[in-house]
Design brief:
Shape: globular
Number of helices: 0
Order of helices and strands: EEEEE
Helix content: under 10%
Bound molecules: zinc ion
Largest sheet: 5 strands, mixed
Distance between the termini: 34 Å
Structural class: mainly beta
Strand order of the largest sheet: 4-3-2-1-5
Radius of gyration: 13 Å
Number of domains: 1
Length: 65
């Protein structure tokens, strides 16, 4: 059973602009670190941003339709 361990430092995250509700949220890596995940605080729309191997992610703006 994997358990959450105390982070040695601040977790990396990306700031996302939720165009559905015009709010900013923070997306954190999932357990596998294959994607950043977040949820819109207003409408609850899930957000997933796949991490690309070339470095970084697909972008900081995401339109949750
Ligand atoms: Zn929303």
């Amino acid at each position: 059973m994997p358990e959450d361990q105390p982070a040695a430092g601040p977790k990396p995250f990306v700031g996302l602009h939720m165009q559905c509700c015009n709010v900013y949220v923070r997306a954190y890596p999932n357990a596998d670190r294959t994607a950043y995940v977040a949820r819109c605080p207003r409408c609850g729309a899930p957000v997933r941003i796949d991490v690309v191997e070339e470095g970084g992610h697909t972008g900081q703006f995401f339109n949750a339709s």
